Amino acid sequence: MGPRGFGFLVALLVLGLCALAVSEKPSPCRCSRTSPEKRKNCGFPGITSNQCFDSGCCFNSSVRGVPWCFNPLPVQDAEQCVMEVEARKNCGYPGISPEECASRNCCFSDTIPQVPWCFFPLSVQDCHY
Ligand SMILES: *[C@@H]1O[C@H](CO)[C@@H](O)[C@H](O)[C@H]1NC(C)=O
């Protein structure tokens, strides 16, 4: 392998390492469905939107007095199932199975106790950064 091939390998390695260090930008709904008063700070004063997104957080500077770089909502199986827990509209009953919930075309997530586990999906049209 000549020096060119070696340089190519080094470049690949560096790119790979960068990809590992940089988190993925959260999906639009994970950001825009977080109400401003519920935001949990994820950055430092003066962080840019790119730095914030690169660290896997959400950026929105349109509301004063709340964190601009904040934690995204948890990932769900589908983007239309991403929402604050308070926004869940019950689509099932206590103890419903994931299969029964899916047969109702609803979202299932049982990670939080005392809230609906089967809930109606929301349109993703209004999700944006
Ligand atoms: C920023 O957040 C506010 C309040 O949630 C929202 O109304 C606005 O559309 C958002 N702006 C962007 C660009 O996401």
From TrEMBL:
PROSITE patterns: P_TREFOIL_1, P_TREFOIL_2. Residues 1-23 form the signal peptide. GO terms for biological process: chemokine-mediated signaling pathway; maintenance of gastrointestinal epithelium; negative regulation of gastric acid secretion. Residues 29-73, 79-122 form the P-type domain. CDD domains: Trefoil (cd00111). It is found in: Secreted. One of its GO terms (molecular function) is CXCR4 chemokine receptor binding. Gene3D superfamilies: Spasmolytic Protein, domain 1 (4.10.110.10). SMART domains: PD. It comes from the Eukaryota. InterPro entries: P_trefoil_chordata (IPR017994), P_trefoil_CS (IPR017957), P_trefoil_dom (IPR000519), P_trefoil_dom_sf (IPR044913). GO terms for cellular component: extracellular space. Keywords: Disulfide bond, Repeat, Secreted, Signal. Disulfide bonds join 42-57, 52-69, 81-107, 91-106, 101-118. PANTHER family: INTESTINAL TREFOIL FACTOR-RELATED, TREFOIL FACTOR 2. Inhibits gastrointestinal motility and gastric acid secretion. Could function as a structural component of gastric mucus, possibly by stabilizing glycoproteins in the mucus gel through interactions with carbohydrate side chains. This is Trefoil factor 2. It comes from Loxodonta africana.
